[in-house]
């Protein structure tokens, strides 16, 4: 919210006479006044006029010799009421920071708007206040929402293979601002099914996958990436990227369960969350050496902490119906000053006989990212990550891919008991309007084993270009990655996906 949105009405303690009525200073005076003041993002002209009222009324008050009865300027909230909403009132009361009996301040109202916007549920939001006695004010929140059940078919294709499936999302069906989604995915290498439930930062998920993929082990220690569920490429295809030391088929079957909880909130959004997960995983290889080194059960339990803004799965789907677009004006405004955002994640996992694994091992990973955002959503991001394992089988070693936070797609990856990664990216909107945004981004990154950097480094750079309609949740675009080590380009393009 800009300064002009907050700077409405007189400043407490500066006026010698009765202040003008406003959303934050409601005094009991003999000067007649309107009972209700609308404080909305849209009423720019009204607020411009109201900013002139304090001086006019101050002069009149000085002439009349009036003085405010509530000299300390504190206004308490007498009652909070809601209108226009389908979501339950109890859900709204739990989401907003203001409470009945609490103090009404500009900061409190700003945080209230932020909390309602963060729910990604409303077409429009406005707040009005009215006097309710000496030092008291009533607050009415008009928040127009809705609900939906929406199926979204999708297809993706790239150098890593092709896949197709369907997502089914629902939001606020049970009037609790909940999200429920089902995913069914099938590709040349296998299938995946998943069910997710999320509400107010709390999450439950069940996932199952069964896929088979050709893998190649190269003479320099690299292995072929199985991103995007690569199907039967054959040894001839994989040999394009280097000399194969061995070629085999890997079948991976996983079943995962997780539960997540918000641990810390700020401005209505979850900024620290925790998750407990169990993954039952079994790997079978046609190559005897691979079976001995990485096959069998690797079932494990993981504890994760995530810091940074929380985003519920499928929130954007509601944009098709106008939900979550209440802050459209705010999205399109240029920032008055740069904003610095930090995020991070920590994951600890352990396996053994108690989890059903064939061997005992442990893993840990840590990632940190800093993003500077300025102007029209220009973004410069710097990130680093580290992963370490102890006694992990080959299939569970940290690798130079998405596991260590690389954005690009690479034909080959490297495994090691420990990995570090560094990356930088810059994104710039080329066009922004009420229809959508066209954005371009570039990145450069590297990942390697600090103990054997020359043998394990995978590094590259890339670019992406996409257009995102505000009322169409998935971006249309493409991305390209160039590997400096392999001197290879990898392309991907889809409706949606990671750009």
Distance between the termini: 28 Å
Coarse shape: elongated
Low-pLDDT regions: 1-72
CATH topology value of the largest domain: Porin
Radius of gyration from the alpha-carbon trace, in angstroms: 28 Å
Folded structure, characterized:
By secondary structure, the protein is mainly beta. It has two domains: about 5-145, Ubiquitin-like (UB roll); about 150-495, membrane protein fhac: a member of the omp85/tpsb transporter family (Porin, Beta Barrel). It contains nine helices and 23 strands. It has helices at about 5, 45-50, 55-65, 90-95, 105-120, 235-240, 290-295, 330, 455; strands spanning about 35-40, 75-85, 125-130, 135-145, 150-160, 160-170, 180-185, 190-200, 200-220, 225, 245-265, 270-285, 295, 300-305, 340-350, 360-375, 380-390, 410-415, 420-430, 435-450, 460-470, 475-485, 490-495. The strands form three sheets. Strands 5-6-7-8-9-11-12-14-15-16-17-19-20-21-22-23 form a 16-stranded antiparallel barrel. It has a four-stranded mixed beta sheet with strand order 1-3-4-2, covered by helices on one side. The longest helix has 13 residues, at about 105-120. The chain is elongated. The two termini are about 30 Å apart.
Jot down its keywords.
499 residues, Ubiquitin-like (UB roll), Porin, 2 domains, 16-stranded antiparallel β-barrel, 4-stranded mixed beta sheet, 9 helices, 13% helix, elongated
Question: What's the helix and strand layout?
Answer:
Blueprint (H helix, E strand, L loop, with lengths): L2 H4 L29 E5 L3 H7 L2 H12 L11 E8 L5 H7 L10 H13 L5 E8 L4 E9 L3 E11 L2 E11 L7 E9 L2 E10 L2 E17 L4 E2 L9 H5 L5 E23 L2 E17 L2 H7 L1 E2 L2 E8 L20 H5 L6 E13 L9 E14 L3 E13 L21 E2 L4 E15 L3 E13 L4 H4 L1 E12 L6 E8 L4 E8 L4
Parallel strand pairs: 2-4
Antiparallel strand pairs: 1-3, 3-4, 5-6, 5-23, 6-7, 7-8, 8-9, 9-11, 10-18, 11-12, 12-13, 12-14, 14-15, 15-16, 16-17, 17-19, 19-20, 20-21, 21-22, 22-23
């Amino acid at each position: 919210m800009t300064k002009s949105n907050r700077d409405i009405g007189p400043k407490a303690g500066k006026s010698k006479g009765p202040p003008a009525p406003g959303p934050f200073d409601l005094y009991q005076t003999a000067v007649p006044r309107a009972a209700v003041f609308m404080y909305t993002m849209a009423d720019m002209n009204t607020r411009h006029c109201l900013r002139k009222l304090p001086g006019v009324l101050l002069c009149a008050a000085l002439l009349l010799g009036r003085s405010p009865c509530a000299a300390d300027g504190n206004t308490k909230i007498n009652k909070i009421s809601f209108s226009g909403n389908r979501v339950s009132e109890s859900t709204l009361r739990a989401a907003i920071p203001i409470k009945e009996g609490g103090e009404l301040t500009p900061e409190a109202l700003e945080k209230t708007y932020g909390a309602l916007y963060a729910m990604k549920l409303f077409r429009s939001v406005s707040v009005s206040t009215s006097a309710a006695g000496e030092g008291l004010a009533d607050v009415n929140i008009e928040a127009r929402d809705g609900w939906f059940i929406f199926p979204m078919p999708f297809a993706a294709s790239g150098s890593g293979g092709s896949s197709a499936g369907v997502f089914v999302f629902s939001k606020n069906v049970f009037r609790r601002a909940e999200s429920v989604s089902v995913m069914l995915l099938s590709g040349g290498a296998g299938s995946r099914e998943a069910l997710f439930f999320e509400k107010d930062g709390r999450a439950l998920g069940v996932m199952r996958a069964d896929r088979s993929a050709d893998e190649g082990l190269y003479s320099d220690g690299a292995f072929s990436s199985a991103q995007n569920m690569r199907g039967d490429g054959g040894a001839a295809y994989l040999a394009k990227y280097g000399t194969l030391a061995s070629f085999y088929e890997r079948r991976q079957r996983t079943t995962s369960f997780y539960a997540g909880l918000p641990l810390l909130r700020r401005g209505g959004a979850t900024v620290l969350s925790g998750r407990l997960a169990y993954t039952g995983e079994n790997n079978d290889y046609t190559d005897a050496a691979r079976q001995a080194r990485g096959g069998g059960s690797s079932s494990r339990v993981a504890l994760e902490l995530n810091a940074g803004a929380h985003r519920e799965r499928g929130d954007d789907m509601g944009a098709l119906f106008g939900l979550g677009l209440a802050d459209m004006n705010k999205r399109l405004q240029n920032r008055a000053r740069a904003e610095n955002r930090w995020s991070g994640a920590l994951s600890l996992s352990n396996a053994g006989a108690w989890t059903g694994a064939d061997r005992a091992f442990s893993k840990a990973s840590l990632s940190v990212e800093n993003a500077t955002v300025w102007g029209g959503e220009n973004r410069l991001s710097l990130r680093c990550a580290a992963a370490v394992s102890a006694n992990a089988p080959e299939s569970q070693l940290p690798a130079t891919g998405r596991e260590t936070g690389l954005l690009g797609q690479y034909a080959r990856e490297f495994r090691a008991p420990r990995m570090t990664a560094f990356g930088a990216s810059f994104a710039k909107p080329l066009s922004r309007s009420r229809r959508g945004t066209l954005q371009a981004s570039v990145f450069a990154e590297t990942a390697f084993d600090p103990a054997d950097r020359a043998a394990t480094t995978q590094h590259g750079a890339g670019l992406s270009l996409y257009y995102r309609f505000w009322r169409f949740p998935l971006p249309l675009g493409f991305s390209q990655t160039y590997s400096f080590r392999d001197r290879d380009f990898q392309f991907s393009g889809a409706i949606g996906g990671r750009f």
